[in-house]
Amino acid sequence: MIALKIKNLRHFMNHLFTLETFDRFTLEEGVIKTFASYSIDGLFEKDFFDGDDPVEKNVLGDPYTPWGLLRGSCRDLIKGKHTPGFMKFVFHGDTSPYRELPGFPNIRALLIMIRFDNTGLSVTTGTSLKEFIPDHEIDILWDNDIKKLFTGCGIEFEEL
Known about the structure:
160 residues, alpha+beta, eight-stranded antiparallel beta sheet, 3 helices, 8 strands, 32% strand
């Protein structure tokens, strides 16, 4: 697990709400506080689409909604002259690149938690495991993959 302080808020928010950078993740939960509070339960409701499921081939295979389906709606909630007072998003990442690791069957979720408030924007990574294992290889690889993603997108951060 690592905690990152994002240096350029506008650049990060552009990647989060406008570009497809985070579309490969699914959203477990989200909170946006503007003049009202919005809470998003990311559980994907397949019955809503009546068999015309836009993410039938969800490679993550988890029960949550791909960010790409929610991004525009969330962007609309924060549009305007006023900055949101608070935002929090919990994303799940794709576990398939870690399939060859001995601890793979133990992975419940690879997490990215994004938090914005009056102190700035921070990102925390994490892994949710079914059972405790003393080996931290999965954690280290996940942390490094997120740092590579951010660096590749020009998202500047400081490790806390």
